[in-house]
Automatic annotation (TrEMBL):
The chain crosses the membrane at residues 21-42, 63-82, 183-208. This is Amino acid ABC transporter permease. It comes from Streptomyces aureoversilis. PANTHER family: AMINO-ACID ABC TRANSPORTER PERMEASE PROTEIN YHDX-RELATED, MEMBRANE COMPONENT OF AMINO ACID ABC TRANSPORTER. Residues 15-205 form the ABC transmembrane type-1 domain. Its main location: membrane. It is found in: Cell membrane. It is a multi-pass membrane protein. The keyword Ribosomal protein does not apply. Belongs to the binding-protein-dependent transport system permease family. HisMQ subfamily.
Length: 216
């Protein structure tokens, strides 16, 4: 317990940093993922191509390489002044959005085609059909895999510690360098912190899944 009590402030800062990074990145991933899923089922060819390209590139690019591309590439393009935390949010959010897109698109494909055809037959536009008829039903199917993606996102935030972002991974690095504590004890407390966050995320999505199941 000494390592936790002696460095509680560092653990608290890292824990809250991980929670904040996960929450903001997850929100960005959900917004972009739903948008890209809409693009992928759009009747406009250019949007379908853009959505497919987005998913293909991000799903097949290693996350560390994507971090390097963002943190080094944006300044090279003249986009300077970005805080490392927001660069991490952008990187994690965009990366995860590609997987969210496929989960949402799978949910959309599970909705019977007759639902969309009936909506169009009464004069609803594509946007109205998607937003008012298809997506509400697709969400019920997409919630479980999205929950798993958010748990994976929580663990992926550890990579941000290598890019000057304060979170649990950076706490582990600083304690290993500046203290004489057993490295396995430090790893144990870091792991417990991650477990707490992932269990909270899992519980949140399980609650959401149950509520939507009742609505079904």
């Amino acid at each position: 317990m000494n390592v936790l009590s002696d460095h509680f402030a560092e653990f608290r800062e890292g824990f809250l940093g991980t929670v904040e990074l996960t929450g903001l990145s997850g929100l960005l991933a959900l917004v972009l993922g739903i948008l890209m899923a809409a693009f992928r089922v759009s009747p406009v060819p250019a949007l379908r191509i853009f959505g497919a390209t987005w998913v293909t590139l991000l799903r097949n690019t290693p996350l560390v390489l994507l971090f390097l591309a963002v943190t080094l590439g944006l300044p090279a393009l003249g986009l300077k002044g970005w805080d490392s935390f927001w660069l991490a949010v952008l990187t994690l959010g965009c990366y995860t959005s590609a997987f969210v897109c496929e989960a949402v698109r799978s949910g959309i494909n599970s909705v019977p085609v007759g639902q969309a055809e009936a909506a169009r037959s009464i004069g609803m536009t594509f946007n109205q059909t998607l937003g008012q008829v298809v997506l509400p039903q697709a969400t019920r199917t997409a919630v479980p895999p999205i929950g798993s993606l958010m748990i994976a996102l929580t663990k992926n935030t550890a990579i941000a510690s290598g890019f000057n972002v304060t979170q649990l991974g950076s706490v582990q690095k600083s304690l290993n360098a500046d203290t004489g504590y057993n490295i396995y004890v430090i790893f144990l407390w870091i792991a417990i912190c991650y477990i707490i966050i992932t269990l909270a995320v899992s519980g949140l999505f399980r609650l959401l899944e149950n509520r939507l199941a009742v609505a079904r």
